[in-house]
Design a protein that fits this description.
This protein has 182 residues and is α+β, with helices and mostly antiparallel strands. It is built from 4 helices and 7 strands, in the order ααβαββββββα. The radius of gyration is 21 Å and the shape is globular.
Length: 182
C-alpha cells in the first residue's frame, strides 16, 4: 500500500510539473513547442521497472526457505555471487564472480515465508534503487513454488530488456541450484 501511495504521489507530482510547463509556455507558442518541452522533461524522469518470475522447485518448502532466509551463504545457490557475509543481522555484503560488490539490507518474514532485499550499493548493474522479493509457498507433491520479483530504476528500454533477460536467466539457474542443494 505504501508503494502504491508513493507512486500515486510521484505521478501527481509529474502531472503538476507538466501543467507548470504548459503554463510557462502559454498559448502564444505552438503546440509543437509544448510537446517538445514535455517530452524533454519526461526524458529526465527515472523509469521504475519490474521483473516478476515463478519457479517450481522439486524440494520441500522448509528446506528451500531455510536456504533463502539464512541471509548468508547465498553463493551456494546464486551463481553470480562468489562470497557473502552477514553483519548486524540484516546487512549482507556480497562479492560477485565478475568483480563487483553488493551491499544489501535484508529482511526475512518467517510467517509469510518472504525474503526482501534492497541493494544499497552496487556498481555491477545499469540500474538504481533495486529492491527484490522472494516468496515461497507449498506446491504440489512436496514441491515449492518460488515467486521472485525485483523492481529497479532503469532509464533506457534497450538496457532494461537486456538486463531483464539476464536476471531471468540468473533466477532460473538459482532456482535449479536451490533444488539441487535442498
Amino acid at each position: 500500500m505504501v508503494f502504491l501511495q508513493q507512486n500515486i504521489k510521484k505521478g501527481f507530482e509529474l502531472i503538476c510539473q507538466i501543467n507548470e510547463l504548459i503554463h510557462q509556455i502559454g498559448t502564444r507558442h505552438s503546440l509543437n513547442l509544448c510537446t517538445v518541452q514535455i517530452f524533454n522533461h519526461l526524458k529526465t524522469v527515472k523509469m521504475k521497472r519490474f521483473i516478476s518470475t515463478q519457479h517450481e522447485i522439486a524440494a520441500p518448502i522448509d528446506k528451500i526457505w531455510s536456504k533463502i532466509a539464512q541471509g548468508d551463504g547465498v553463493e551456494s545457490w546464486l551463481p553470480i555471487i562468489k562470497s557473502s557475509t552477514l553483519e548486524a543481522g540484516n546487512r549482507r555484503f556480497c562479492e560477485m564472480h565478475e568483480g563487483g560488490k553488493l551491499e544489501e539490507t535484508i529482511l526475512a518474514s518467517e510467517g509469510t515465508k518472504t525474503f526482501m532485499y534492497s541493494i544499497d550499493k552496487q556498481e555491477a548493474f545499469p540500474a538504481k534503487n533495486i529492491v527484490g522479493t522472494m516468496r515461497v509457498e507449498k506446491s504440489t507433491e512436496g514441491n515449492t513454488k518460488l515467486f521472485w520479483d525485483v523492481e529497479m530504476e532503469v532509464e533506457e528500454d534497450e538496457v532494461f530488456a537486456e538486463l531483464k533477460n539476464n536476471i531471468e536467466q540468473v533466477y532460473q539457474m538459482s532456482a535449479a541450484k536451490l533444488s539441487e542443494i535442498a
